[in-house]
Amino acid sequence: MKEDNSVAAGGSAASDAGRADVIDFGRILRNYLRHWWLFAISLALCLGAAVFYVKKKSPIYLMKGLVMVNQQEEGGMTQAGGLTAMLSSFGMGGGGGANPENETMKLISNTNLTDVVNTLQLQKGYWLDNGFFSRRTNLYKDAPFVIDIPQNILDTISATTFFRIKTDGKSPLHLTVEQGKHTVIDTDVRQFPYMAKTPYGSFNITQTSYYQKGQPLNMRAVVVSTPVAVDDLLNNINVSYLSNKADAIQVDMADANIERGNDIVNTTIALYNERRLNDRMTYNKETLDFIEQRLLNLYNELEVSESKIENYKRDNKIVNAEAEAEYIFAQKGAIETNHTELRTRVEIYEMIKQMLSNPQTQYSLIPFTGGQLGLSEAYYKLIEGYNDLILQRMQLSSSAKPGSNAMNQIDTQIGAVRDNILNSVNRELQGARISLSAIAAEQGKSDSRMSQIPRMEHELIALYRDREVKNQIYAYLLQKREETQIQLSQNEPVAKVIDYSYPTIKPVKPNVPIVLAAGLLLGLLMPALYLQFFSRGTGNGKSTKNND
After folding, report:
1. Is residue 271 within a helix (H) or strand (E), and if so which, with residue range?
2. What CA–CA distances, in Å, run from 452 to 85, 116, 321, 326, 333?
3. Contacts with 505 (C-beta within 8 Å, 6 or more apart), sequence order
4. Which of 58, 119, 180, 461 has CA 20 to 30 A from 491's CA?
5. Residue 386 burial by CB count (10 A; 0-12/13-18/19+): exposed, middle or buried?
6. Which residues share a beta bridge with 23?
7. How do beta strands 201-207 and 194-198 pair?
8. Which of these ranges, 121-135, 253-267, 346-360, has the smallest mean pLDDT?
9. Cα–Cα distance measured from residue 515 to residue 509, given in angstroms and rounded to the nearest whole number
10. Bridge partners, residue 207, by sequence
11. How far apart are CA 540 and CA 542, in angstroms?
């Protein structure tokens, strides 16, 4: 009997424990309803804060510009002829388009964005403070006062400088300047322009035509260094290509001032095009200079070859040796073709080697790529890197003095890369000469079988062959010169503007529905959490009723 009572008591305790772990949602809801006033206050505060944020926050618009990369940047004229066909197989003279992914990196490069910042003076920002409960007015080209500072100080200043120019319309203008959380100027200004001297430099404050005398004014301004402005611009601008199958690149800029955002997008594209056009013109001019010099040398060599042939015919009384030896030398056609191709390749390598070894052209661009020389991809990138260093030196020479550390450093880099290229060309040249030796050996065997052919015919063919090689190289360089001159006459930008910058119809920030929804959710969540976890004995929602 005692065992039955003990079992019954144990079962009752287990049942009570199970009911104690059940969440009583009805009790939670009744608890919330009893404290409805807490929800009302929380909703009023949170929604009020959300509405205040929306009214106070300046709307941010997204400016968009669209460009199309020009795929005919480097020509692409049709090759023709025996030698030009072979050179085309090396990759020489072929056109190549700009890679959209590479162009996006150039658009937002530090160099390009620095030029944008300096061009538009983005180191300076102006706005009107309309009070705590009003949205501030962002100014761009319509600021009542502007601040001027030398460019060299803007590039190096380490402290952000804040300005405040305030008046009630009757009293004099009051100027406050802060640097590094310290007020460095706090004075009335009665006459402009005014030179504000600070520990980090002097700022010239000038009055503009937008200032209305006698009207209240509370204008603020900020001046940052160029690197800081570039970093801020990089955080707000985005450049992306729309598709792997398309050449379209979109430039996006988020800004509170539509006019400034449009100027930033359009200026970014314009400065990029200007720099790319200058680089392309520099490359083509260097190429043209080299081709002109080589054409002059080849012309003189052709004159010598023609004179040798003419003198040889006169001395040996030969009228039409080609017709006489046509059948005899038919079997040597294949050997001679290989020999000509190898000789041509050797001439090309010698031409590049001469350019790199000549002190007068040691800082000129290589007008051919590694692929055009038949080199591997590694050497192709090496030649590209060499040309990039030459372009950097050209740009640096306009600002740096000869003998400066920067010039010496880049000259050292150019010399090291030039030596690597020369070593590569020498190895290829050595291989070509070995192949020539092998073909010459085959020619010797063929000559032994043709001992009946007069010596003069053999020598005359050698003279013809030398003239033919030079003629075809000369014809190819003439074509290359025409292509380069055509490219020099073209001013078409690399990035063709499809859409100039335009703003979105609605601001992207703040997102009013999301902000209000967040305020509503927070207004409901805070009192619920309070009642659930901090209200004594009323918010846990678990049943505590025990049965006797």
Report:
1. helix 258-316
2. 36, 78, 15, 15, 18
3. none
4. 119
5. buried
6. 542
7. antiparallel
8. 346-360
9. 10
10. 145
11. 6
